[in-house]
Amino acid sequence: MPLADHLRELRNRLAKGVLAILVVTVAAAFYYKDITDFITRPVLDSIGCPDSFGNLAKSKDVHCAHLTVSGLLAPFTLALKVALTTGIVLASPVWLYQLWAFVAPGLHRNEKKYAYAFVAFGFPLFLAGGYLAYNVLPTTAKFLIDLTPSNAENLLPLDDLLDLSIRMVVVFGLAFEMPLLLIMLNLTGVLSGRRMLGWWRGMIVGIAAFAAVATPSPDPGTMLSLAAPIWGLFFIAVGFSMLNDRRKQRRAGGGLSDDEASDLDLTPEDIGETEPVGAGRSVPEQSGPERVNGYDDVT
To answer: What is the pLDDT of residues 259-272, one digit of tens each?
Structure first.
């Protein structure tokens, strides 16, 4: 296909994806209050504060935070942010399909197979990470609110709470994709299971450090709630990769793995019926006006 046709197809694919996002965003704008309540309800229930409708939550505690919206244009900006985020998330099957339809014709059959497997397992893993973040966030909010001094009142901006909730969902969801990426690298022959197993100490420390930075709460419970599932998924990926390497080795007839080097035999041998390789053989000298000692340059 010529370059102009590629650009025209890319324009059409992008237009369809953007149109789907706009349609869902407009529909979500009419229900943005319900969506906001769905996102903030677990946090407000955990800290015992009035929700967005003015009803008192079930759990009552000495420490409480009140939701606030500052500015005349803040409600409109908040509604636009909630509606657009909902449109991007709910319209993801459409724009992801448009992206796949543009890229797929340039892939080989085995590459398409790996891409289908990545989507089939990647989307449920992302949902699992987002669901975990949605359930961990109330505990995190309770821990942070309890740090408020007894003679102070905590005012919680609604847009900050929404940003924190969305960021935690995205971070937890993407973190759950890491083991799947390792498996895909193993299936394509880039990384072996034995090498991944040798990284287990560094991976445990690295995942713990990532969980400590990614979670907004400094308590170890919230950190372990993210680190422990990723640790388990990492060792599952290592086990799958080692089994896959063993399967490929059996299929290859018991040969060496990709990260093993065979011994080299450097002893000279006879080739067919020709004479053996000798140390005294040299290139015959050639005479000519442009040659020095039989060679074409001084060296």
So the answer is: 555 566 566 555 55
C-alpha to C-alpha distance for 151 and 289, rounded to whole angstroms:
102
Residue of 105, 74, 143, 75 lying closest to 10 (CA atoms): 105
Task: Give pTM, 2 decimals.
Answer: 0.66
Res. 244: pLDDT tops 90: no
Name the percent of the chain in helix, strand, coil, to the closest 5: 65, 5, 30
Using the structure block, give the residue that is written with the tokens 């969902």: 169
Instruction: List Cα–Cα distances, 286 to 112, 291, 298, in angstroms.
Output: 58, 8, 14
Beta bridge partners of 67: 156
Q: How far is CA 31 from CA 36, 37, 157, in A?
A: 9, 10, 20
| Per-residue pLDDT at 59 | 44
Cα 238 from Cα 230, distance rounded (Å): 12
Cβ partners under 8 Å of residue 293, min gap 6: 285
Q: With CA atoms as reference, report the closest residue to 237 among 193, 191, 188, 174.
A: 193
Residue in 124, 147, 129 with CA at minimum distance from that of residue 211: 129
